[in-house]
Amino acid sequence: MSSPISSAAAVNHPSSDSSPTSDIRDIPGGYGVPFFGPIKDRLDYYYGQGEVEFFRARMKKYNSTVFRCNMPPGPFMAKNPQVVCLLDAISFQILFDNSKVEKQNVLDGTYMPSTAFTGGYRTCAYLDPSEPNHAVLKGFFISQLAKLHSKFIPGFRQSISGLFTSLEEELSNKGKANFNSLNDIMSFDFVFRLFCDKNPSETPLGPTGGPKLVDKWLFFQLHPLISLGLKFVPHFLEDLVLHTFPLPFGLIKSDYKKLYNSFYNSAGSILDEAEKIGMKRDEACHNLVFLAGFNAYGGMKALFPALIKWVAIAGEDLHRRLAAEIRAVVKEEGGVSAAALEKMSLTKSVVYEALRIEPAVPYQYGKAKQDIIIKNHDSKFSIKKGEMIFGYQPMATKDSRVFDKPEEFVAERFMSEGEKLIEYVYWSNGRETDDPTVDNKQCPGKDLVVLLSRLMLVEFFLKYDTFTAEIGKLLLGSLVTFKSLTKGT
C-alpha cells in the first residue's frame, strides 16, 4: 500500500509571483552551441542515452528536477528547441494553469505538423483556451460525449467481445496472440460506431482498414518524436529521415481523404448539430476525425496495452483478486453498470496506477504568457515570458516525494488513504481530480477513458481467471503478446 502523501507534496501551489528575489534559484542547464547543441541533445535523446536516461542524467548532473535543455526534433523541424524541463509532481502543475501558460500549437512540442493533415484547419487540440474557436469546438464535443453516454458501456462490451474471440482463435492457431493489433481493431470499431452509429465494415474502410489508415496518418504527424530502433538502419540515416525534415502530407493524401469521407458520410447527425451552432461542416468533420483518430483511437492504442502489460507483470495473485472483486460486484448489482464499476475499489486503483506509471501521452508543453515563478519541492525558479516549458509526465508521476516505491506497479496504491494521491495522476493534461471544461486543455474524454479502462478489466476477468504475456516495446508504447489464457469456471 502506498504511504500517505508527504507534507512537501501537500503544498499544492506550483507558482507564486510574490517570492523575494533572494529565494529564487537560477535554472541550471543550458542549450549548448546554436544549431549543434540541439543536434547533440537530439542524438543523446534517441541514440546515445535513450529517453528516460536523457532526463535522469541531467537531473542528477544539475541536482534539480527543473533544468534547461533542448527537446527534439530541433533543426530543421523546430525553430526553437529550447525548453525549461520539469520532472517533479509540483513544478509540473504550472502546465495546467492557463492564466500563466499558453497552449497554442504546442500539442506535439516544439514543432507543429502541417495543417494539411487536418484539412487546413488548426483543430481544437492546437488551440489555446483564449482563442474563441476553442470554446466552440471543445464545448461542442463535450456536449456530444454527454449525449452519447448511454452507448459507452454496451458499445464497448460489444466491441471487446470480438477482441476476445479473436484472441482465443489466434492463441489456439499460433500458440500466441498479438494483443496490440487486435486492440487496434477493437478500439477503432468502438470509436467509429460511437460517433457514426455504424460499423466501419459497412463503409469503404472495411473491418480492418480504419486502424491502418489512422496509424499511417499518425505516423506522418508524429515521426519527429519516434525512433524505429532498427539495428540494420544506421542512426544518422534514421535521424536524417525522421527528425530533420517533415514528411509531406501528399504521400498520404488519398488515405486521409478515404478516412475523412468515411466520417463525413457516416456522422451526419453530429455534423448536423455542428452546423446548427454555426460551425462549418467540413471544419467540424476534420475536428471529429482528429478527436476520433488522434485523441480517442490513438489514446486507446497506447493505453490498453499498457494496462494489460502491468496487470500481466503483477501476476496471478492480482488476477485472482480482480476476478473475485469484479464477479462479486457484478453479481450483487445484477450486471455491468456505471454504478457497479464505482464499487470496484481494487479495479479502480489498478486503472489509476496504470495511468500513473505509463501515461499514454508522456509530454506536456506550454509557453509562459508572462514572467512567472515556479517551484518544485525544494526551490523556486524564474521563467521569463515566451519561454517554452516542458514536462516529462512519466517522471513527474513517479516523484518519490509523493509516491512510495514510485517505479513499482502497486495495485492497491489508490485504495483507502491512497485515494488522496489521485490528484497527482496527470495523464489527461490535468489533475485526475479536475474536470475538462472549455476553459482548460484537459482531455474532453477523460472520464470516458477511465470508464473504458475499468470496463476492459471487468470484461476480461468476468471471462478469464488468469493469463500470461510477453512484454516488448513499440514505437510509442508497449507490445503485449498473450501466451496463455485460463477461462473462468
From TrEMBL:
Keyword Cell membrane on entry: no
Cofactor(s), names only, from the UniProt record: heme
GO BP, sorted A to Z: fatty acid metabolic process; sterol metabolic process
UniProt cross-references to InterPro entries, sorted A to Z: Cyt_P450 (IPR001128), Cyt_P450_E_grp-IV (IPR002403), Cyt_P450_sf (IPR036396)
Binding residues annotated for heme, in chain numbering: C443
GO MF entries: heme binding; iron ion binding; lyase activity; monooxygenase activity; oxidoreductase activity, acting on paired donors, with incorporation or reduction of molecular oxygen
Pfam families per record: p450
Region (Disordered): 1-26
Keywords: Heme, Iron, Lyase, Metal-binding
Biased composition annotated in UniProt, kind: Polar residues: 13-22
Keyword Heme: yes
The protein's name: Allene oxide synthase
